[in-house]
Amino acid sequence: MTPLKNKGRMLRLLIIGIGNPLRSDDGLGLQVAQELSREPLPDDVHIIAAQQLTPELSELASRAEHVLFIDAADAGTPGTLKCEPIAPAAPSGRHSHDLTPAAVLQMSQTLYGRCPPAHLLTIAGESFATGATLSPAVASAMPALKAQIRSFIEGDARENK
Predict the structure, then answer these.
(1) Which of 133, 58, 122, 132 is nearest to 88 (CA)?
(2) How far is CA 121 from CA 28, 80, 83, in A?
């Protein structure tokens, strides 16, 4: 997890990229978050690259005006980009490895009294086999994914959802 700029202050946008870099397309969210972290960003935007969601993320989510989760989808036509709103929902499993974006939002509401609006941006994966590179279908969808993320960073996407 990267250090939080302006700790204690409200974030306009929290971006959480999720993925396993050793499982081909599953590394999508982590890779995108790492790439974005190297770019200049507004001070009120914070990016986290995570291999899995953890309960601690709910505290950061409670201090954001909007949360954007980025992940690979294991269903759908490979390379298909989706952007869907997320509503809070109780965790379905007993282990932290089972946390979903909806469960992080529910924990944010339950523990900190605040659940921000959120979206899940996904690209449907083609390969989740052992490997460190993205499939051609996912790699070719990356420019569209990054453009969508930039519209959230610039504040345009939320008005159109």
Answers:
(1) 58
(2) 11, 11, 5
Q: Are the C-beta atoms of residues 55 and 108 closer than 8 Å to each other?
A: no
Tokens of 2: 């990267």
Q: Tell me, what amino acid is at 84? A: E
Nearest in space to 63 (alpha carbons), one of 105, 102, 10, 112: 10
Please determine, looking at this structure, whether the domain spanning 13-160 carries the CATH number 3.30.230.70. no
- Quick: pLDDT tens for 116-145: 999 999 999 999 999 999 999 999 999 999
Handedness of CA 48, 5, 142, 76 (dihedral sign): positive
The pLDDT value given to residue 2: 45
Q: Give the number of other CB atoms < 10 A from CB of residue 104.
A: 27
How is the chain split into domains, by residue range? 13-160
